[in-house]
Amino acid sequence: MLHHANNAEGILEFIKGDLRLFCFEDSDDRLIVLTSGTIKKRKKADKSEVDRAVRVKREYLAAKQQGRIKLVSLDDRKVKEIDDGWYLNRS
User: Fold this and answer.
1) pLDDT > 90: what percent of the chain?
2) Most buried among 11, 42, 69, 89, by the most CB within 10 A?
């Protein structure tokens, strides 16, 4: 099940059993960006996990705006270093 964990920030939460994955949509590039995951401890999403997802989203968008992130094709099978630890590994 996928639903909003923080509607104002566009943070989505995927729930499968005890697993929770937080993500957001980068509609400019038609991507879903996974920010973090955790094991469910209670019914409602842990505020600190949602806050982490918001922080990661803001860092991602700032890095993208500053040109520090380069998206690569799914056909590219190489590891691409993208600056400050952002990378895509398609090996």
Assistant:
1) 36
2) 11
